From TrEMBL:
Pfam families xrefs: Hemerythrin (PF01814)
Gene3D superfamilies hit by this protein: nmb1532 protein domain like (1.20.120.520)
The protein, known as: Hemerythrin domain-containing protein
Species per Swiss-Prot/TrEMBL record: Dyella flava
Domain Hemerythrin-like: 2-133
Amino acid sequence: MDIEKFKREHVDLLAAVTDLRELVQAGVQEHAEAIVHQLVTMSSVIKLHLAAEDRVLYPALINAADPRIAHTGKQFQEEMGDLAQAYTAFVSRWNLPAKISKDPQGFRSDANNVFKALHLRVQRENRELYPLAERV
């Protein structure tokens, strides 16, 4: 299976997280509007990526002849639901500049938790899932 597009999307996503971190470090209150814009942009990319994984990647893995690949694909798909819900809830909580400006420390803390989990997920997919997908 050709997964180069998925890999590129991971690179783009991690770059977007880096851009968001730079905005936060430059000042949450001062850059609240740009932070919201970045979150909205990232959300679109993430939603498209997740939809492609659900429509193409996971079904291919789950239907693989190798039971280990099928099991791993199913496991990753099930785990992804929790992270997707956490990210969606995070964006809903911080979808307005006023919300971010009102509680910059709360935003920082919440963002650190969500983006740490997202980063770990991307790393796991790159290290564990994508090599299996390349064998399908």
